[in-house]
Amino acid sequence: MPLLPLHGHDAVRRRLEDAIRRDSLPASLLLQGPPGIGKQRLALWLGQRLLCTGPEPRPCGQCQHCRYAQAGTHPDIHWYFPRPRLKDSDPSPEDVEDDFREAVGERTRTGVYAPPPPEEAILIATIRAMAHAAALAPALGARKVFVLGDADRLVVRDDSEYAAGAFLKLLEEPPKSANIILTSSEPGSLMPTIRSRLVAIRVPPLGAEAVDAVLGEPAMREAVTAAGVPDRAQERRRLAAGAPGSLLGRAEWADALARAQRMLDAADDHDRKTQMRVALGQGAAKARGAFSTSLDALSSLLHERARAALQRGNPAAARAAARALEDVEQAKERASGNVNPQLITSELLRRLEDQLR
Ligand SMILES: [Zn+2]
What is the CB-side half-sphere exposure of residue 179 using CA atoms within 13 A? Predict the structure, then answer.
């Protein structure tokens, strides 16, 4: 089964194509940009482009290399990402490759996958397996391509120094005919010694047309529905905000919806205040991404509430929900800037208290 087709990212693709034509593509790249915009898919596309031997424009989509690449089975495209720790505390490169064959198979079963849970990481064993594979000759093509997704999840625990050392060596002396492509939505969390060895390319969020195309892929549509996001094209486009993959954090989204619902159902002001603090993750050391998801969930429910109130013939309730929705949208805007989530939460609390009474 194939990867999802790559939609959008035209400007970055042109830039990469141009670099390839001028033979100036850096051997070690970092694709950075918000989560869920398709950075790993873009990196895999670049791998396919580099291996394609078909007619121009490349990738042709028809040659043997393209077919393997699109299926996620090209032996010279090595795709790594955060994984749970293996049972064996010191697994061999073969064990690691087996684990990734399975994991990539899982990701390419439908071509759609949720972001890895926070406890999963890129382990020293993965870096070792990568270094091992890099030392071997390509199996089928003229070169080898290594894609390392969510590279900022390189372990920073026990053996991190060791992992970083092995990795730096690989980046410093990349084997001939090898390309290493890292992706990250938090490049600031990459070790400076790693970052300094990479040429960074900023990948912007997708435009509306590309978002619709991604969300219109049957596998994607099904997965987003399974994640509990209402099957309304316009609302999905709005919630995706240029990053359709962000709708796939299943547990995260379902939890956020449940918390927001408890808040809207609160018995009284005091209860609502408590639930809202829970819903927006106040006090917890929450990532900015989780905070946005909570606001998205709240906004989705308020949309529904406004619609339902109108259908019931209760314009006053619909107006209240619409005003609350505006406040949430404003909070979202501020959250995407650099405003502190706690400050946003307490202000939003004050405003919503009146609207939702
Ligand atoms: Zn091809």
Answer: 27
